[in-house]
Amino acid sequence: MSFLYRFTSGLLRCYFRLFYRFSVHGTSHPLKGKAILASNHNSFLDPPIIGAAWPEEVHYLARASLFRRRWWGMFLSKLNAHPVSGSTHDIHSFRLICKLLENGDKVVIFPEGERSPSGELLSIKSGIAMLALRTKSPIIPVYLKGTFEAWPRHSFWPKFGMPIICVFGKPIFIEAGQADHKKKRQEEITRQIQKSLENLKQWLECGANGEPP
Questions:
Q1: Most buried pick, 22, 55, 164, 207, via CB within 10 A?
Q2: Angle between helices 3-20 and 46-53 (to 10 degrees)
Q3: How far is residue 105 from each of residues 31, 57, 75, 94, measured CA to CA in Å?
Q4: Cα separation of the two ends of the chain
Q5: Which of 34-48, 53-67, 152-166: highest mean pLDDT?
Q6: Model confidence pLDDT, tens digit, residues 120-174
Q7: How many other C-beta atoms are found inside a 10 Å radius of the C-beta of residue 160?
């Protein structure tokens, strides 16, 4: 982990703990090697929250417009953000994610495809299952609670004081030979991710007792 990444993630953890009573669950035994971190998406706060919570470096896709200012673009690149001009589901993005995973990196993906307008969990798109099957990468479900209340989709500025919780669930592994019957497998993996995120949400609502599901 680079010094800049370690310093920035540590600074973000302090910031979120100070202003949002930030807490994390499910990182006691982090999965080594490549993986897809599949998270619900409510807010602009979601990517830095996950980066601050996970104990290793993670990679992100970001809108190319964020890189227009050279100094800011260089800073984002050092924090493993990768510019994409179109949808995160287009062919360029797909190839970029595959390359990162093949290099053994962890990549954050928001499989709902957009920020939730209500804070409720949306339906999972099948593209993430396609990526997992293509690269044989395990999927780590991530559920974020409180980011919608802190900075909802249609709000210009974030609010302070809302508690934010980040929960990492048990990995979903892609076993050898599961590339057969791709369409059926994609549908099955997509349902697994949806169910895992719903279980993490319910686990939090029931008091967050024991290990996350």
A1: 164
A2: 110
A3: 11, 8, 19, 15
A4: 28
A5: 34-48
A6: 999 999 899 999 999 999 999 999 999 999 999 888 899 999 999 999 999 999 8
A7: 9
Cα four-point dihedral sign 3, 48, 38, 61: negative
- Which domains does the chain show, CATH number per domain? 34-204 (3.40.1130.10)
Please tell me the total number of residues recorded for the chain in this structure.
Answer: 213
Compute the distance between CA of residue 157 and CA of residue 150 in angstroms, rounded to an integer: 9
- Three-state SS sequence of the chain: CCHHHHHHHHHHHHHHHHHHCCEEECCCCCCCCCEEEEECCCCCCHHHHHHHHCCCCCEEEEEHHHHCCHHHHHHHHHCCEEEECCCCCCHHHHHHHHHHHHCCCEEEECCCCCCCCCCCCCCCCCHHHHHHHHHCCCEEEEEEECHHHHCCCCCCCCCCCCCCEEEECCCECCCCCCCCCHHHHHHHHHHHHHHHHHHHHHHHHCCCCCCCC
For the segment 65-121, what is each residue's pLDDT rounded down to a tens digit? 888 888 998 999 999 999 887 555 578 888 999 999 999 999 999 999 889 999 999
Question: Rounded to an integer, what distance in angstroms lies between the CA atom of residue 146 and that of residue 46?
Answer: 10
